[in-house]
Specification:
The complex is a heterodimer of chains A (268) and B (261). Chain A has 6 helices and 14 strands. Chain A has 268 residues and is of the alpha+beta class. Chain A starts with 16 loop residues before the first strand and ends in a 5-residue tail after the last helix. Chain A has an 8-stranded mixed sheet with strand order 8-1-2-10-13-12-11-9. In chain A, strands 4-5 form a two-stranded antiparallel sheet. Chain A has a domain at 1-39 and 71-180 and 218-238 and 252-268: Ku70, Chain: A, Domain 2, CATH 2.40.290.10. Helices cover 26% and strands 31% of the residues of chain B. Chain B has 261 residues and is α+β, with helices and mostly antiparallel strands. Chain B has helices at 77-83, 119-132, 185-197, 210-223, 242-260, and strands at residues 7-13, 16-24, 34-37, 44-48, 62-68, 71-75, 90-98, 107-115, 134-142, 145-154, 157-163. Chain B has a domain at 7-27 and 85-163: Ku70, Chain: A, Domain 2 (Beta Barrel). In chain B, α3 packs parallel to α5 (242-260). In chain B, the strands form 2 sheets. Chain B has a 7-stranded mixed barrel. A two-stranded antiparallel ribbon of chain B has the order 5-6. Classes of the chains: A alpha+beta (268), B alpha+beta (261).
Amino acid sequence: MTTKQASDEQTGARPFWSGTITFGLVSVPVNLFPASRSLRSPLRMLGPDGEPLARKYYSEKTEHDLDNDELERGYEMAAGKFVVITDDELERLAPEKTRDIDLARFVDEDSISPLYFERGYFLTPDRGAEKAYKLLAEAMAKDGRAGIATFVMRGKEHLVAIFSDSGILRAETMRFPDEIRSPKEVGLPAPTKVSPAAVRKFAGLIKRKAKATFSPVKDAETARLLKVVKQRRAKRSNVVHAKNEEPAADNVIDLMAVLKRSLRGGQN
Amino acid sequence: MAARSIWKGELKIGTSKLPVKLYAAVSDLNVRFHVLDNHKTRVKQHMVAPTSGQEVPADEIKKGFEVEPGTFVILTAEDLDGIKPESSREIEIDKFVPAAKISQQWYERPYYLGPDGSEKDYFALAEALAKTEREGIANWVMRNKEYNGALRSQDGYLILSTLRNEGEVISAAELPKPLGRAPSQKEIKMAQQLVSMLADEFKPSDYRDQYRERLLSFIERKAKGHKPRLSIVKAKRKTTALDSVLARSIASLKKKEKRAA
């Protein structure tokens, strides 16, 4: 069985998903890549002599480490009572038609609340699909519309909005409405009548701090971490070289280079 | 049932302060699995040295930052403590930008803010944000972690969404345009016609996670000892000639409209 790992979403050397967008009877085969990335790899766990460690599953009873083929995926029906679900069953629970992104509805691209957005991906045209891809991108851009669909990707169904962004199709996965709580469910009080003077006071504060554009904020904690690393390295203190090092599986890959290659037709 | 707040803080705009409570806006409905061994018993995890196959106990494990393949700088507990942000209750809002200026790509996770004391000021700020059509850019420290976020108003309530950091988002404008032939003006016209025939409002309630529903009902049936049949899935990929397929799409949608009328 495969276990779900956060690093899954970070790998990007190969498409995260490949499939077909349809609108009307037009099909556009595409490849999907993450549009966001981590700024750094997570810290590695090392042994006393600096050897990179591996995380292993083991049985408490036999005290033996278990290989992947000795592991199963279980859903807990009651305390300690599990139903085993196989990879094959998960795969077959997604019928063929649910694997396409069928854009059956196009909405005003500014009309979706940011509450829904989860994660962005870029779509690149598969070989031979460039013209249909451009056609969809251009038609949506001219009308300022985003296409909406649901589709199954990697054992999970996603609600998705496809935006036309600088000639490129960008998919934003969204939360389903039952995943978003309402103010009432949260227990927030019903809005009270507000005094116009109080609104004017806050509007004044907002105006005083108004900026025309959004500029992203730096990750200060990563910057501080990198500074400590740099100091240690310069002093050659606490630096270890691993023997028998297997290449790290979750290295930060150059997502930009992968995307460029894919848009220029290098992706099979 | 009312939810419990997960954190308390104070919105700070200039010299003005507004005490708030923070609530999760998202509930996790993902189907959770456990890792089991072949005897349906839950397994444990530990860290093992690959060369010896021996377990390394937690108190002997060091944390390393990989500076180049195979070379690590070890960070001590003091190092890691030293980079932690100073704890604070302040959610500082230092600027307000037009609501449409933040691309969807930046938004990460939303929280509701609720009033913690003055309801009047809380709802007045929400209304002021709605009226000025702006979002506040916020930064705060919560549970030893720094966040930056967007403060916005929705349906009269304040929502604070965490935003991704600089460098974490790739902008489409940085990417090359896809290669290949451009569609003709006629084809674009037809595609636009097709898009406008499928135009509608975004209605979230029209969508549900049917995979999750199928999975849960499958688990239920399997638990009862049934062997539910599942279809075999084949991969398929297809491309089609554009002009004829556009014309056929429009014709079939028109037919549907007529039938509905």
